[in-house]
Design brief:
77% helix; 87 residues
């Protein structure tokens, strides 16, 4: 900055490169966290199915229907989260 506080082109390019690297690192971290959230949501759904599923064999057909329903609901939730909202 040798012209009264006005940055040079080289300084601006260096700042731009630094900020681009920061943005890239943050985007990678966000993607990793999104994958972790999906994994944890799947594990939670599975544990809920095991916890609240009927224990008796006479209701075995109901377990599969509930599992399929939960899977469909999870798919809908994941699709809604991944679909960008338009304002």
């Amino acid at each position: 900055m040798d012209r009264g506080g006005v940055p040079t082109i080289a300084e601006l390019m260096a700042l731009l490169a630094t900020k681009a690297a920061e943005v890239e690192a943050l985007a990678a971290e966000r993607d990793a966290l999104a994958r972790r959230i999906l994994k944890l949501e799947e594990e939670l759904a599975l544990s809920r199915l095991h916890r609240f599923a009927p224990r008796s064999e006479k209701h075995l057909d109901r377990v599969f229907n509930e599992a399929e329903q939960a899977s469909l609901e999870d798919d809908v939730r994941r699709t809604e989260k991944l679909t960008p909202r338009r304002n």
